[in-house]
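Final report, Chapter 2: Outcomes

The project's central promise was a pipeline that accepts a single protein chain and returns its three-dimensional structure in a standardized token representation, suitable for archiving and comparison. That pipeline is now operational. To close this chapter, we reproduce one record exactly as it appears in the project archive, with the input sequence first and the structure output second.
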Amino acid sequence: MLHHSRRVILEAGVIAAITTAVCAAILPVLRTGPGSPDDDTCLSHLRQLGQASRMYENDWNAQLLPYVVSVPSPGVSKRWTSVLLPYVVDIGIFRCPLDHLDQPTTTGGIPTAYGINWYISSMVGTMFGFTYPSRPYSFVKAPEATIQLADTALVTSETAGLPPDLWAEDLLRAGTADTSYFYLPQNPLYGGNESGWAGGGSGASFLRPFPRHSGVVNVAFYDGSAAAVPAAQFDPAVTRFGMDSCLWDNVAPPVPPYTMSEAALALKISAGLETSTTDRMKRLNVVLEGDSKSVVDAADAVRIARKAGGIEANP
């Protein structure tokens, strides 16, 4: 019995070590704890903007905050900053303490140093004869792991082709730039955009998530949380559309395979020996028809055991 206990402890330790190593390999290291005062202020601003976005979505039938709202009249549009204004107490949260903006207003919105995710946030309204519908919050497959807003800046053309930690901000245009959304370097494998409009009649520009804070980019996620993300997350040589570690595309993360311990947990829940939390329900309710459609029961336990045992596809 003692030998068996030691083996179980050893196996548990090995599993924990493997899990830690896998997570370290596929996910960027995020910082959510204290940094410098400017870092903390910036993160606080992004967190507040993320929470304000959720308030907007609650008022608008769970529709995502758009990056711009356009109406048929020529030249009339509102950036996401103006759309979000009714949900913000202090407009100072649209700014990072380290940005170089020097304008009180900008065309169609409140000046901001935070760009919204152009790949996910849509234009809403009518422009050039085309009508663009809003997108529901459910469009985002993994809100807790998908960036909605990020520190954003114009990057100089001389450094735009370098790794992100070597990008330099275009200070000649930084004061009046429209950095209300971000693009990322062209990716020949998965698509993407190299540049976008940044105002001032200057044409295409390198609008990028920018590492203002000692090599990291402060971001807000679609679930309302905020964190500091390493600059390498935005390097196409490191992270590309569709990769498990990508935080700015809209690809659902892979579902991990089921285990026999989860089958046992489902059986305990069905017998009333364990509680069925929201997370457990989402993970363990695999039989979605009949009496098992919205409850974790013995049918789920059997299906999970079959998956874990290799009888059915896992997951």
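Archive annotation: The mean pLDDT is 80.
This record, like all others produced under the grant, will remain available to the consortium after the project formally closes.
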